[in-house]
Amino acid sequence: MTSQLPIAEPMTSRKRKVHKKSRQGCGNCKLRRVKCDENKPQCKKCMDFGVSCSYDPKSSTLELSTSGELSIDFSVKPLPQMVQSITFGMINPLVGLPTRPWVGRIDYQLGEQDMALLHKFQMRTSCTVGTELSSCLYQTEIFKLACSHSFLMHIVLAMTLMHDRHISPSPDRKPSPAESYHCYQGTALFNSALSQPIQPSERDALWGAAALLGAIAFSWVEARTPDEAWPLKASSPADLDWLKLTDGKREVYKITNPARLDSVFHTLFKPTGDFLPCDPRGTDLKNIPDEFIKLYELDHPSSGTQTANNPYHAAVCTLANLFNLECNRSTILEFLSFVTHMCTDLKQLLEAKDPRALLLLAHWYAKLCNYQQWWIWRRAVLECQAICIYLERYRGQHDIAIRGLLRWPKIICSGLVAG
């Protein structure tokens, strides 16, 4: 017997009020899913959040505002209770893992302040590191990886706090207790994870942590004046730590292979890989000024011979490719290749404050001075100025040649104030 559903009585349809939905808001408000006031050239929501306002329909990422003063609310805004319970419930069981036994058992639970920092990282800090493509990956993939790997979560929180400190109207050179805590915990857990057999599921998180730690190390400058900066300051075991970290980052690259096809980062790497050693043999030197060729004892192209054993050779060749290139968001990886391709002998010469090695670093810093990004700007300006002062006091072999080539970086960095 077939039963039939009763036919419903026709109901009087209720008229709904028609709401006019505007699609004229700026791209950043659409990306953040907030209501835009549509003020031009900059809406108030973007000004308050400290990002550039763009009405370009092709714009797809948030960019930190670089014109005028930043107006950023550093206070922590409470999240709705429903959002708190869902977010904390999803993340805390994964992030609140105990540290390794030798570090001490510490269970860390994310709170409202941490959630506000995570929002800042995803919508602001991630947009300041690397190229436009890598920033998009940091916005999405590193954020997701941090939710399941405690070492990366601590590093993300530390970097966001460091970013807050750098762009504050009156920045403090010393990290806050929270920043120091997260930096320590993240580094300790990261080193502990590397000391154990690496699981396939950890590889992307480990590489993401190494990438962020590289930026953190470069931005960590306590000096206020050139006299307090390296190489003018008193020698310390911590000198050039940011450069030494490159060797460790190269080893993490080998272990994690972020260029592999199943990595979330594989689109960022060329087939040859950014961390493969640079081979100067066969490099065309015709674009290198004669003053550099003579000072660094490079073979002239017409001689037909090569100087692969020259510790300066690869660095000069890499630097020469950057002479006519502006350092910006699109080219920053090419400028960072100067460091990643630096040979061990040249790093040792820098540690010994070799004048010719310092001159190369000063030229590289001078190019970076044009890229006013928070984690690059202070070190580039202060150490470029310090190197110029140091080399001006230098008296010895190659003195005249060094002074001649020092004029350009001195002009670039003079008058700049690394606030």
Overall description:
This protein is 48% helix and 0% strand. It is an all-alpha fold. The protein folds into three domains: 22-73, CD2-Gal4; 81-268, no CATH class; 290-413. Helix 4 packs antiparallel against helix 5 (132-146) and helix 4 packs across helix 6 (150-167). The longest helix is centred in the C-terminal third of the chain and has 19 residues, at 374-392. The protein starts with 26 loop residues before the first helix and ends in a 6-residue tail after the last helix. Mean pLDDT is 78; it is low at 1-11, 60-106, 275-282 and 301-306. GO terms for molecular function: DNA binding; DNA-binding transcription activator activity, RNA polymerase II-specific; zinc ion binding. Pfam families: Zn_clus (PF00172). Keywords: DNA-binding, Nucleus, Transcription, Transcription regulation.
Keywords:
48% helix, Zn2-C6_fun-type_DNA-bd_sf, CD2-Gal4, Sterol_Uptake_Regulator, 419 residues, single chain, Zn(2)-C6 fungal-type domain-containing protein, transcription regulation
Write the layout of secondary structure elements.
Elements: H1 27-32, H2 44-49, H3 81-95, H4 112-123, H5 132-146, H6 150-167, H7 177-194, H8 203-219, H9 241-256, H10 290-295, H11 313-320, H12 332-340, H13 344-351, H14 355-368, H15 374-392, H16 399-413
Helix pairs in contact: 4-5, 4-6, 5-6, 6-7, 6-8, 8-9, 8-15, 14-15, 14-16, 15-16
Overall number of domains? 3
Counted by DSSP, the helix tally is: 16
Helix/strand/pairing category: mainly alpha
Amino-to-carboxy terminus distance: 85 Å
Largest sheet: none
Average pLDDT score = 78
The shape, in one word, is globular
Low-confidence stretches: 1-11, 60-106, 275-282, 301-306
Rg from alpha-carbon coordinates = 26 Å
Share of helix, binned: 40-55%
Order of helices and strands: HHHHHHHHHHHHHHHH
Q: Count the strands?
A: 0
The percent range for strand residues is: under 5%
